[in-house]
Amino acid sequence: MSAGAVLPAIGMATALALPLGAALGWAATRLRPDTSSLAARIDALLPQTQCAQCRYPGCRPYAEAIARGEAEIDQCPPGGDATVRALADLLGREPRPVSPQFGAAATNMVAVVDESRCIGCALCLPACPVDAIVGAPRFMHTVIEAQCTGCGLCVPPCPVDCITMAAPSSTHAPRGRRAA
């Protein structure tokens, strides 16, 4: 092939490659790989406490980190060993106990306010990631058991130790928990 025939072919290939490359580059910045379906399935297995004990700001960011391979499956104390087993089954991994560096694995518990000792300080209200505690400053507080996920984040801020974790009083499990 002569040089006169090759140069126009190279020019035509370059003219096609530049806009196609730009379009692909633009699409790559706008369209991310679909890890969302795996993240959504992982998120569905998590207890939805939004407690951040896993070191992520909520269950969905933790699920996305697991889907990307950036987090382990044993970082969710509120979910306990049942959640780790479910995640291991989904991802084809070996189950292991919840890592103690993230807290003790939760059992089926809910927060209970001893209303006779509550001083209405309201420090427990912002600590609850699911707004299961109701009350107002200087008034007694109580826990909506059906909303409580059992994360225990409301216990440490209470200055009079009137909040304890106990078995649910009704027949339902805390919201977000999976039956083991």
Describe this structure in words.
- With 180 residues, the chain is mainly alpha-helical.
- The chain has 5 helices and 4 strands; from the N terminus they run ααααβαβββ.
- The chain has helices spanning 3-30, 36-45, 59-68, 80-91, 124-127; strands at residues 110-113, 133-134, 142-143, 163-166.
- It has a two-stranded antiparallel ribbon. The chain has a two-stranded antiparallel ribbon with strand order 2-3.
- Strand 2 and strand 3 (142-143) form a beta hairpin.
- Helix 2 crosses helix 3.
- The protein is elongated and about 95 Å long.
- The model is unreliable at 171-180 (pLDDT under 50).
Fold blueprint:
Blueprint: H1 3-30, H2 36-45, H3 59-68, H4 80-91, E1 110-113, H5 124-127, E2 133-134, E3 142-143, E4 163-166
Antiparallel strand pairs: 1-4, 2-3
Helix pairs in contact: 2-3
Order of neighbouring strands in the sheet with most strands? 1-4
Unreliable stretches covering 5 or more consecutive residues: 171-180
Oligomer classification: single chain
Radius of gyration from the alpha-carbon trace, in angstroms: 26 Å
Report the biggest beta sheet as strand number plus sense, adding barrel if it closes: 2 strands, antiparallel
Beta-strand percentage range: 5-15%
Number of strands: 4
Mean pLDDT value: 85
Order of helix and strand elements from N to C terminus = HHHHEHEEE
The CA-CA distance between the termini, in Å, is 73 Å
Q: Helix share of residues?
A: 25-40%
